[in-house]
Amino acid sequence: MRIYLLLAHPDRNSLCGGIADTYQAAALAAGHDLQRQDLATMAFDPILHQGYKAIQPLEPDLVEAQRLIDWCERWVIVYPAWWGSVPALLKGFFDRTLLPGQAFAPHDKDPLWDKLLKGRSGQLFITADAPDYWTWFAYHNSDVRMVKHAVLGYCGIKPVTVTRFAEVKTSTEAQREAWLEKVRLMAARPA
């Protein structure tokens, strides 16, 4: 399987970084073809200055991201849930990379659109300090709803599976190792 792995935590030395490293090693060991980008090292302006009225020229890292999105069969995104959402840099990445004509195509005469990224699946690995029940009760899984449905689903990527590792701040080393083992097993699965 062709996998595009995006580490969307600004700190590569975070638990998210460990999840991405673990996923990459296990997927490659299982024979998957994997390409990776880390938002922390990418150079691009995350602000969509004129909306979609005028598309800004894409920086080389975003051109490569579009190539990898087109190439992949599964898009894996690893990010922390902050303020009930995603890090600003990930939101900016979505705004700048998933463009009309590349990820979706609005219809001229009706409010519908074509989903140009059909045929791909998604996998989200999310870390959070809040307990799962609080994320669901207080925020209605707002980060997942945005990424899974309003971004990936809007572009045609499905199914999208979600694995959330909660209460990170109070987790033990044994819990974190168990989480990484879960990531290893998921990455090693055949398509």
Oligomer: single chain
Mean model confidence by pLDDT: 95
Named CATH topology: Rossmann fold
Q: Which blocks of ≥5 consecutive residues have pLDDT under 50?
A: none
CATH homologous superfamily (4th level) name: Flavodoxin domain
Shape: globular
Structure commentary:
The protein has a single domain, classed as Flavodoxin domain (Rossmann fold). The chain has six helices and seven strands; from the N terminus they run βαβαβαβββααβα. α1 runs parallel beside α6 (173-188). It is an alpha/beta fold and 191 residues long. The chain has helices at 15-29, 60-71, 88-97, 132-139, 142-155, 173-188; strands at residues 2-7, 33-38, 74-80, 104-106, 113-115, 121-127, 160-165. The strands form two sheets. Strands 2-1-3-6-7 form a five-stranded parallel β-sheet, with helices on both faces. Strands 4-5 form a two-stranded antiparallel sheet.
Keywords, separated by commas or semicolons:
191 residues, alpha/beta, Rossmann fold, 5-stranded parallel sheet, 6 helices, 7 strands, 20% strand
Topology of helices and strands:
Blueprint: E1 2-7, H1 15-29, E2 33-38, H2 60-71, E3 74-80, H3 88-97, E4 104-106, E5 113-115, E6 121-127, H4 132-139, H5 142-155, E7 160-165, H6 173-188
Parallel strand pairs: 1-2, 1-3, 3-6, 6-7
Antiparallel strand pairs: 4-5
Helix pairs in contact: 1-6
